[in-house]
Amino acid sequence: MTETATFGGGCFWCVEAAFKEIDGVESVTSGYAGGHVEDPSYREVCTGNTGHAEVVQVEYDPEVHGYEDMLEVFFTVHDPTQLNRQGPDVGTQYRSIVLTHDDEQRELAEAYIEALEEAGGYDDEIVTEVEPLERFWRAEEKHQDYFEKNPQDAYCQMHAQPKVEKVREKFAENVSRA
């Protein structure tokens, strides 16, 4: 049995690549969520006019890692204090967002963010949104497994590779593809 978590933390290529490293993660799908346009395209989402965020949907085995572990990976691989951006990517489509599948996920996400704020690990306020997932739209096939298919791509080298390395270092005992 698998469970599903949905996160947006900038470009989905980078977040997808990082989650694929973790034991117990069975699949990661890039897509769009949180907007008001039916079945949006990448071009449409990139305009910032659809309301969608680039997100990943993570299917994981809860017997290996729980939802809180997925939250820890998510908050490790992006900066939750950047409003509507991550690194060079700017726009609401790159916002930090946790899209919850049920009340338990919402409660866990809110508690996790509160604990991060109380720990004082960030200089700025955490701006991550926590909202219920209404609909997930799978991104076009060329965006699936993008880092895996294009490891020499300059963007991937500068932005995805460091996130993968961070996961391999911080979660070394939980990495399946190092």
Kindly list the characteristics that best describe this protein:
178 residues; alpha+beta; Peptide Methionine Sulfoxide Reductase, Chain A; 6-stranded mixed beta sheet; two-stranded antiparallel sheet; 6 helices; 34% helix; globular
Description:
34% of the residues lie in helices and 22% in strands. It is of the alpha+beta class and 178 residues long. The strands form two sheets. Strands 7-6-1-3-2-8 form a six-stranded mixed sheet, with helices on one face. Strands 4-5 form a two-stranded antiparallel ribbon. The longest helix has 17 residues, at 103-119. The radius of gyration is 15 Å and the shape is globular. The protein starts with a strand and ends in an 8-residue tail after the last helix. 39% of the residues are buried. The model has no long low-confidence stretch (mean pLDDT 95).
Sequence-ordered SSE layout with sheet pairings:
Layout: E1 3-9, H1 12-19, E2 25-33, H2 42-46, E3 53-60, H3 67-76, E4 85-86, E5 89-90, E6 96-100, H4 103-119, E7 129-132, E8 136-138, H5 146-149, H6 154-170
Parallel strand pairs: 6-7
Antiparallel strand pairs: 1-3, 1-6, 2-3, 2-8, 4-5
Helix pairs in contact: 1-6, 3-4
